[in-house]
Amino acid sequence: MKYIKQFSIILFISFIGEMAHHFIKLPIPASIYGIVIMFLCLLTKIVKLESVKETGDFLVKIMPMTFIPAAVGLLNVWDIIKVSLLEYILVTILSTILVMVVSGHISQLIIRHTDKKISIKNNKIHVKEARSHE
Amino acid sequence: MNSVLEDSIFFGLTLSFLSYFLGDFLQKKFKSQIFNPLLISIVISISVLTIFNIDYDSYYNGAKYISYLLTPATVALAIPLYEQLNTLKKNYKAIIAGILSGVLTSLSFVLVMALIFNFSHAEYVTFLPKSISTAIGMDVSSELGGYVSVTVAIIVITGIIGNVAGSGILKIFRITSPIAKGIALGTSSHAMGTAKAMELGEVEGAISSLSIVVAGIITVIGASIFAGFM
């Protein structure tokens, strides 16, 4: 019964997401409203972590499977794509790699920079402490 | 063949599940990233449909039920995100800067490529939402006058690349921080990249989930601006 309850909560929030998508005229899908609503519910403790945890983890784990039908749908557009296949594939591959590298490195740089600052700060504190001990 | 399978619900479901299971089995057996369960499943399913000349609709008649779980699964991504709240708060600057730079890179690169390959305006806007989740991307593409079905295909291929090659690319380009890995996967290849990030670790998965949401929303705004550039 525990899992039924957990799944009901997740389904209900998905449903609210659908309603939001229906009534708010923005190109934002139900799932995005849903993830924001679920996050806010957890944050405000309206939904407790333990009332969604196991079923949520299960859903996240099987997530790759939910893409199979859409991906197999590549069959349907094959005739349109094959005309400029090489260009399309090239743009897709290159841009995916480029976005990954740029976004990853920029955030990594900032993280290292902040960590350095923190460690310098901590060092200064250590030095001060050491001096005061002298 | 089609007449029998047309009404079958379990054909599409069985094909999807069995082929995914086989992919998972192969990956565990050979411990190689090439045997990505998602990729194996797609290849096997497409091959079966092509070889036996079965309509996609007959397959989708059953397989669609798996797709229905995508929305609840995406909603459930909020759970790991909430569990990593402290990481989120501590690194918000790096996270926002990373995602923003990723979205801008994606849009600008598509613009440059469209100019080089002499794309039509419709082709250009078809590519603009390529890195974000399918549901948002479809809306953006149709809003701007792109070919929606092609956008879906490109988004799916982008996701497959992120899922299959993501961890290799991160290694080659020396992206080692878990937060940076999450941003890179989620910003470049949406939920399919996030599925891979989840396998890499809790922080990677949570940050990648956040990237889907933030990158998706920034792209909605960014794509409509970029659509005017060509």
Can you walk through the features of this model?
The complex is a heterodimer of chains A (134) and B (230). Chain A contains 6 helices and no strands. Chain A is an all-alpha fold. The longest helix of chain A has 49 residues. With 230 residues, chain B is mostly helical. Chain B folds into 2 domains: 67 residues, no CATH class; 152 residues, no CATH class. The interface between A and B is large, with 76 and 105 residues.
Summarize the structure.
The complex is a heterodimer of chains A (134) and B (230). Chain A is mainly alpha-helical. Chain A has helices at residues 2-23, 30-43, 53-62, 68-72, 74-81, 85-133.
What attributes characterize this protein structure?
heterodimer; A: 134 residues; mainly alpha; 2 domains; B: 230 residues
The description of the largest β-sheet of chain A is: none
Give the amount of beta strand of chain A, in percent.
under 5%
Count the helices of chain B. How many?
13
Largest interface: A-B, 76 and 105 residues
Rounded to an integer in angstroms, the radius of gyration calculated over CA atoms of chain A is 24 Å
Rg of chain B: 19 Å
List the helices and strands and how they pair.
The complex is a heterodimer of chains A (134) and B (230).
Chain A: H1 2-23, H2 30-43, H3 53-62, H4 68-72, H5 74-81, H6 85-133
Helix pairs in contact in A: 1-2, 1-3
Chain B: H1 2-6, H2 10-30, H3 37-51, H4 56-67, H5 70-76, H6 78-83, H7 85-90, H8 92-116, H9 121-127, H10 134-144, H11 148-172, H12 178-200, H13 202-226
